[in-house]
Design brief:
With about 180 residues, this protein is mostly helical. It contains 9 helices and no strands. The C terminus is likely disordered.
């Protein structure tokens, strides 16, 4: 889906006036906090403006409903599923480290530093892909849409990043006791 090239201001304002209350009501149903509902409505209207041709139909309500639900999921993940406890490098890197620590609670400070160094060597977009998939819990389609790439490309980049991280961490001396 590509963004609309030029949107007639009058047409958009007319569309906004006709559907503003419907979108506001959908947003209020999704979030109890008024500020969250307003933020969601702003996100929805930015998306509608970007892809106006898709929404400028005889009955845009089903499309608006799907868009509100999709954006509400994004907003919820961004606001309420993150726990940042002081950034080591970037919030994404710290969250990845926390996630990996939860999976492997015996991770020590040396491994944490090594993982942070390995993440520093990853490209920024690869770190964002890892963060979106494993910390925010985005689907492959949502990841692809957010980064403007095909979902298979996102999958391949994440696989390669994880492979590089594993390879980098394998060269570390093992702290496990011999059995």
């Amino acid at each position: 889906m590509t963004a609309t090239q030029a949107v007639d201001r009058e047409t958009f304002e007319h569309f906004y006036k006709n559907h503003h209350s419907h979108v506001a009501e959908l947003c209020r149903r999704r979030f109890a906090k008024e500020q969250d509902a307003e933020d969601l409505a702003a996100l929805v209207w930015m998306e509608v403006y970007r892809f106006f041709e898709k929404f400028h139909t005889e009955n845009p309500r089903p499309s608006l409903y799907r868009l509100v639900n999709w954006r509400a999921g994004d907003l919820y993940r961004q606001r309420y599923r993150h726990r940042f406890h002081g950034a080591l490098l970037h919030p994404e890197d710290e969250s990845l480290l926390e996630m990996m620590r939860e999976k492997h609670p015996d991770i020590g400070p040396d491994e944490k530093v090594a993982l942070a160094q390995a993440l520093q060597h990853e490209e920024a977009e690869d770190r964002q892909l890892l963060f979106g998939r494993f910390v925010e819990g985005l689907s492959w389609a949502e990841l692809a849409t957010r980064h403007g790439i095909h979902r298979n490309t996102a999958l391949k980049r994440i696989k390669l990043s994880l492979h590089r991280l594993r390879k980098h961490l394998e060269v570390l001396p093992s702290t496990e006791a011999p059995t």
